[in-house]
């Protein structure tokens, strides 16, 4: 009696499972049939603007027989550079120490035999780096010239940027959307279908980086200043848009 009951329960369970499976299949097929036809395109927009700010790296490197002597000489030179930058209107918030190091200098003697000669410390080198944000690009050349005369002997890397690039990026973003829409229109017309609503839109880069372009002329503070060409910054935005295709 117990075995017969168990067999009946098992048969009922299998029958229910098979029925549920057969009932689920039409729903899946129906969902596939209702899936909306779409087209996805990418668009790119570019906008340029003249930079209004520059980041420049300046370093003072001093060498001496002892670390203390090298540090003292370096500190004296860097203090003069900082004071001069302040006198030219550079705010303290726009100056930041970016690299500082004390390194021994070694000399390796050539061994006359097969033995190993350990390197000998013959002096020390102290480097103090400074990153300066220059908001007056017309003064940049003269600033570099004065800094070199006061002891800066390394660095000089310049990156031109914009204090606020929101308006330029917005223009590039609009161009990217227009470019994507034009591509979608061309593709659907060629395929003989009608372009529908926008389903999804995304931006590839939230904050595009500026791209340096060639400058038509140099900006100089004075005739004897370092010639500096600021050029333009180009901001690029890429968008991906998914459109529905009307049936």
UniProtKB/TrEMBL annotation:
Biological process annotations from GO: DNA damage response
Coiled coil feature spans: none
InterPro entries: 26kDa_periplasmic_antigen (IPR052022), SIMPL/DUF541 (IPR007497)
Keyword entries, A-Z: Signal
Superkingdom field: Bacteria
Extent of the signal sequence: 1-29
UniProt cross-references to PANTHER family, sorted A to Z: PERIPLASMIC IMMUNOGENIC PROTEIN, SLR1258 PROTEIN
Protein name in UniProt: SIMPL domain-containing protein
Organismal lineage: Bacteria, Pseudomonadati, Pseudomonadota, Alphaproteobacteria, Hyphomicrobiales
């Amino acid at each position: 009696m117990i075995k017969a009951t168990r067999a009946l329960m098992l048969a009922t369970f299998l029958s229910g499972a098979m029925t549920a499976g057969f009932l689920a299949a039409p729903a899946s097929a129906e969902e596939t049939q209702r899936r909306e036809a779409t087209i996805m395109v990418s668009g790119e927009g570019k906008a340029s603007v003249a930079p209004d700010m520059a980041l420049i790296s300046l370093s003072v490197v001093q060498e001496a027989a002892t670390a203390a002597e090298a540090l003292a000489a370096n500190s004296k030179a860097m203090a003069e550079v900082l004071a001069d930058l302040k006198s030219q209107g550079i705010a303290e918030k726009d100056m930041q120490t970016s690299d500082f190091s004390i390194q021994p200098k070694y000399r390796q003697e050539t061994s006359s035999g097969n033995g190993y000669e350990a390197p000998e410390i013959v002096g020390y080198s102290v480097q103090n780096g400074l990153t300066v944000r220059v908001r007056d690009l017309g003064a940049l050349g003269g600033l570099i010239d004065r800094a070199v005369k006061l002891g800066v002997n390394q660095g000089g890397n310049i990156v031109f940027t914009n204090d606020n690039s929101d308006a330029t990026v917005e223009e590039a973003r609009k161009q990217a959307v227009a470019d994507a829409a034009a591509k979608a229109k061309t593709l659907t017309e060629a395929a003989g279908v009608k372009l529908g609503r926008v389903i999804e839109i995304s931006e590839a880069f939230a904050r595009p980086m500026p791209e340096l372009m060639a400058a038509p002329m140099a900006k100089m503070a004075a005739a004897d200043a370092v010639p500096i060409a600021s050029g333009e910054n180009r901001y690029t935005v890429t968008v991906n848009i998914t459109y529905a295709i009307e049936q």
